[in-house]
Amino acid sequence: MTRRFWRRNGATGWALTAPATLAVIGFLLVPIGAVIAGTFMDPRGVFAPYMSYFNSGFRTTVLFRTLQIAALTTVISLIFGFMTAYVVLRAPGKLKSLLIVAAVFPLLTGVVVRAFAWLIILGRNGILNQTLLALGITSEPLEMLYTQGAVIIGMVYLFVPLMVLSLVGVLENIPKDVLQASSSLGASPLATFWQVLLPLAVPGLIVGAVLVFTGSFTAYATPQLLGGERQTVLATLLHQRAMVSFDWVGASTIAAIMTVITITIVLAMSHIARRINPMAT
Amino acid sequence: MTQPLDINAVSAHYGTTKVLEDLSLSVQAGELVSLLGASGCGKTTTLRLIAGFLSPTSGSITLGGRDLTRLPTHKRDIGLVFQNYALFPHLTVLENVAFGLKQRGIAPAERRKRALAMLERVGLAALADRAPGALSGGQKQRVALARALVIEPPLLMFDEPLSNLDAKLRVDMRVEIRQLQRANGTTSVYVTHDQEEAFSISDRVAIMNAGRLMQFDRPEVLYRRPANTFVARFVGFENIIPFKVTAREGDRVTAETAGMALRLPQSAYGTIPDTFLLATRPDGLVVSTDPAAEGLPATLGLRTYLGRAYQYQCETPAGHLIANGSLTAPLESGTAVKLVPAPEQCTILAAEGAR
Amino acid sequence: MSDRPHPILIGVAALVYFFLMVPLVIVVGAALSDTTYLTFPPQGLSLRWFENIFAISAFRRTIVTSLQIAFLGTLIALLIGIPAAYALNRFRVELPRWLGTLFVLPILVPEIVFGFALLKSLTVGAGVPVFVALLIGHTLLVLPYVVRVISASLASFDFSIEEAAISLGSAPVKTFFTIVLPNVRAGVIAAFILAFITSLNDVSVSLFLTGPGISTLPIQILAHVEQFFDPTVASVSVLLMFLTVAVMAVVERTLGLTFLAK
Asked: Mind listing the UniProt keywords for this protein, alphabetically (chain C) (predicted)?
């Protein structure tokens, strides 16, 4: 009887990865590459689409608004996510799994559903206004929708569960005995937090922050529903340019700007996170 | 500086399982006491209770008369050396050692001086600015030791500190630990599952099993005079034979097991109760080919070579026994012999009801 | 651990969970409302808005499309993703590192840009039918999840078991199906569920790839919300949530939910 063993060589490996590799190259890298390359082939000049983008006051406002919304969302999610993750981690067994499930659930609920919920809450006749009016806190319904605040609330709602889950993982990876060593050496819980826990969590915090920043930087449904035209962001502008104005060059330029910013941030921050990770060696 | 530790009737639970039952143990000032036992015996639980990572369900722990029981860990002032070193990966070696001094509000210059001096003592001053991740296991252990010692705690505790090191380094480090502990005269509690390690460095050893203290004494006593069958088996008394006394004539006590009579000189064994267990190591049973010898009749089975002796698996009416025989005259399997107890290598244990 | 977090921290965490749960409760309440406008607490309970979902043909059609796309897309992603994940682990030494990174790329690239790029090159550029383009988009959208989850469970698989089976005379391909796959079953199930839910809820990729007559449920919901503000959307949302709960219950039964948190 002849036995044919898997030959441990690259050829088999390459063959097995080939379909997925070709799919990613053919349907992701090439199309996106074509979009970006296209922006440099404008008859008006190589950088013409970018010049006209940054010459438009409206469009630069949109870019900075998008960055601002993403940054605020990240900071708020980071602060609340960290505190919550800390509590989740310390919760007794049963409660802990319940809290994790409660964080996973919204994550698995669609973005449209979650944005829609805030539409009901923040609307002119929404629950919040009804409550405020009933309590006599205001006499007129407040205009809460289509503001930057509404978009940020919706985004934080979108990303806090992600942050909590990723930070629970980060905190769980900090060896318990290191924290115990800290308190055995006389560090109060507060000192242990600032001098040991937080420094060790920073690389994980960066990874979580990047996740939230890029997610909120490119989100479409939430700013569309809660921000409307008054709070146009890059994603909604991209859609509007392509599908309403049929301005393909303009849309491609926005796509290129979004891609470059996202990938730059991801690469730079994960590089930093790796470099300052004390647990790497 | 150096203070006695008292554990008074402490019990502890993990959920509904009882992990420690009514443990009382006193460690004298300056003494090194080992807690020895297999995993799950309660030794680590005891250490965690003293450190304050766990709370006892009842009982109290005092250090130098100060009640620690309700005190949070960071106020207990205990130096702790962890099994996995637990060095702070984001701090340098020097910062690791200075950490406890910083918590005590000591000025930066002074804590740097003291931390460096301590690193000097453990021979690591040259590595002060390294990251702990770049150190070898033995070096990490020295840093952990320096970090615990530099705060000059009234109590020092070790949680299996050498179990991650290789055999040679383990022996070197335990000598080093003992020397540092002696020099400082710090009261110490040392948790280990390694009998040799415990016996070699301790003033006294507490042998634990299933959450209870089995025997607490000097290593020499534990090794030669175990107090019960658990400790006897633990320290290598592989043969434990139940006897009933049938006659006493002066110094001669006749005892019987499985229908075989054996005459024992009472003076050589101390008091012999009416029912007792005779416990010996394989060395304590002399293999004799003289049919007239005063011993238990046995048939030799498998012979193995130990280097200093031959060891025989023996079948006797009293069950399976293990004896060592001389290197000069190896005996074949199947030989009928007598196994003669050597009094100085045997100990008499009280018969235990359930056995 | 004997030290509990500071009461203020516990308070903050409680507020965060309140903030997470309340909107979902409100959506459920709105869906059960008897009124023609959105309100909470519901005034009179009824299931009429659930019936309305199926009365509106656009919802009926998009639900079917969404399920088809999610199912087929996930299936194709598993078909190409499992061999890739296997090869990445089995031939870790032989294959270059960047190959692993390649399969994570669809997560790094903004989804909306990806959708736009596919619109330009497939639908407009190559005249690919809308359904096919949508399927391709969703397959690539979920591929990173498939590769990552299955890689994670293969990482803890002891490949010497596979070698043992082969040395005992089992053919390599048969060994994969009888030895390797059963041992990473949990990973495959988790990958399927994660991919399915991701695809079902996707907006950004589908946004550009839906065309006349063919749309997905989330896109249809989005369009509906912008035109009408009635509880139908809440009912569809609840329907989607129940689907999620059902799927999560299955996961909980088979693997435990902490698995998904990774």
From this structure: Cell inner membrane, Cell membrane, Membrane, Transmembrane, Transmembrane helix, Transport
The full DSSP string for C60-93 is HHHHHHHHHHHHHHHHHHHHHHHHHHHHHHHTTT
Structural contact between residues C31 and C231, judged by C-beta atoms closer than 8 angstroms = yes
CATH architecture for residues C57-259: Orthogonal Bundle (1.10)
Helix, strand, coil percent values for chain B (each to nearest 5): 30, 35, 35
Contact B59, B43 (CB under 8 A): no
Q: Rounded to whole angstroms, how far apart are CA atoms C212 and C203?
A: 17
Contact state of C3 with B72 under an 8 Å Cβ cutoff: yes
- Closest CB to A109: pick one of C1, C12, C241: C241
Superfamily of segment(s) B5-233: P-loop containing nucleotide triphosphate hydrolases (3.40.50.300)
CB contact under 8 A, A184 and B76: yes
**Does residue A101 sit in helix, strand or coil?**
helix
Contact C143/A20, CB-based, under 8 Å? yes
Residues in A touching B88 (Cβ below 8 Å): 178, 181-182, 196, 200
As annotated, the residues of chain B forming the CATH 2.40.50.140 domain(s) are 237-350
Burial of C196 (0-12, 13-18, 19+ CB in 10 A): buried
Per-residue pLDDT of chain C (262 residues; tens, 9 = 90+): 445 788 899 999 999 999 999 998 888 888 887 776 666 666 767 777 778 787 888 888 998 999 999 999 999 999 999 999 999 998 888 888 888 889 888 888 999 999 999 999 998 889 999 999 999 999 999 999 999 999 999 988 888 888 888 888 888 888 888 888 888 888 888 898 889 989 999 999 999 998 878 899 999 989 888 887 777 888 888 888 887 777 767 766 766 555 554 4
Q: Containing H/E element for A218?
A: helix A198-218
Best A12, A25, A87 member to test C by mutation, with max C CBs in 10 Å, is: A87
Q: What's the topology of domain B237-350? A: OB fold (Dihydrolipoamide Acetyltransferase, E2P) (2.40.50)
Closest CA in chain A for residue C81: A20
Give me the residues paired with residue C15 across strands: none
Domains of chain A: 20-275 (1.10.3720.10)
SS3 B248: strand
As annotated, the residues of chain B forming the CATH 3.40.50.300 domain(s) are 5-233
- In angstroms, the CA A252 to CA A37 distance is 9
Distance between CA B271 and CA B273 in Å, rounded?
Answer: 6
Q: First CA to last CA across chain B, in angstroms?
A: 47
Query: Which residues of B have a CB under 8 Å from any CB of A?
Result: 51-53, 72-80, 82-84, 86-90, 99-100, 102-104, 131, 133-134, 147-148, 151
pLDDT category, B267, cuts 50, 70, 90? confident
Asked whether the beta carbons of residue A178 and residue B90 sit closer than 8 angstroms, the reply is no
For residue A94, count other CB atoms closer than 10 A to its CB.
8
